[in-house]
Amino acid sequence: MNLNNYEIIILDCDGVVFDTNQKKIKLFKDCLSDYDQNSIAEFINYLKLNFGKTRKEIFNFFFKNIIQKDLSRIDEFLNKYSNQCIKMYQKEDYTQGFVEFRKNYSDKTFYLVSGSDQKELRKIFSSKNIFQIKNILGSPINKNIHFKRIKANNPHKKILSIGDSLHDYEVSKENKIDFLFMKKFSLLSDIKTFDFQTINCFEDIS
Questions:
Q1: CA separation for the pair 158, 154 (Å, rounded)
Q2: 3-class DSSP state of 199
Q3: What is the mean pLDDT of residues 119-124?
Q4: Within 13 Å of residue 103, how many CA atoms lie on the same side as its CB?
Q5: Mean pLDDT computed over 72-93
Q6: What is the rounded CA–CA span in Å between residue 175 and residue 125?
Q7: How many CB atoms lie under 10 A from the CB of residue 80?
Q8: Which residue among 27, 70, 93, 171 is least packed, with the fewest CB closer than 10 Å?
Q9: What is the rounded distance in angstroms from the CA atom of residue 173 to the CA atom of residue 203?
Q10: For 37, which DSSP code?
Q11: What is residue 70's predicted lDDT score, i.e. its pLDDT?
């Protein structure tokens, strides 16, 4: 894939810019450790297929669809999870080849669009001096709405989305945005059944 054909590149965060998917799964499990293991296992299976959704949507699924109780506790768990995420991100380095990739394509307009909390992300990336990516978008607004707005605000520009989840692919497809799948840090164990182009990590295109 020739990235020079694109004017805008949308990056996912977890599993693309940071290798944090497995760590986030552990954080979710730790937050819900008081619940039974079968319910948590069902939740993790759901999570692997739905990474990229907002954390509120994810917790809501657990309480509403899996255990079917304690919906009033969602905010409590959101706060608990948020505090742990901030600590995690502060320790993270970028994935292989990301720094070189960002330098090589400095003429592009970059967006970072994530299901993670927008305020958290902006704070974390500001502290990491992330090459002036000014467009950092996250929850509580979901990824699909962010993609629609980016597309609407750039009607004549060619856009590429780089993600690592089925949700990233589906949102890109719905918005008619080209998609590139990064597999090295993804939670998807088998990508052969999907019809998207793949790379291992940023080193493949740096």
A1: 8
A2: strand
A3: 88
A4: 6
A5: 91
A6: 26
A7: 15
A8: 93
A9: 25
A10: H
A11: 93
Residue type, 55: R
DSSP designation for 3: G
Helices (DSSP H) in the chain: which residue ranges? 21-31, 37-50, 55-61, 74-90, 98-104, 118-127, 143-153, 166-174
Q: Which residues contact 205 (CB under 8 A, 6 or more apart)?
A: 1, 3, 97, 101, 199
Q: Letter for the amino acid at 105?
A: Y
Pairing mode, if any, of strands 159-163 and 135-139? unpaired
User: Which two structure tokens, joined as six digits, stand for 89?
Assistant: 């991100």
Per the structure block, which two tokens stand in for 158?
Answer: 């060619």
Burial class (CB in 10 A: 0-12, 13-18, 19+), 57: middle
* Banded pLDDT at 104 (limits 50, 70, 90): very high
Given this model, what pLDDT does residue 133 score? 78
Please provide the size of the chain in residues.
206
DSSP secondary structure of 62-107: IIIIIS---GGGHHHHHHHHHHHHHHHHHTPPBPTTHHHHHHHTTT
CA distance 164 to 19: 11
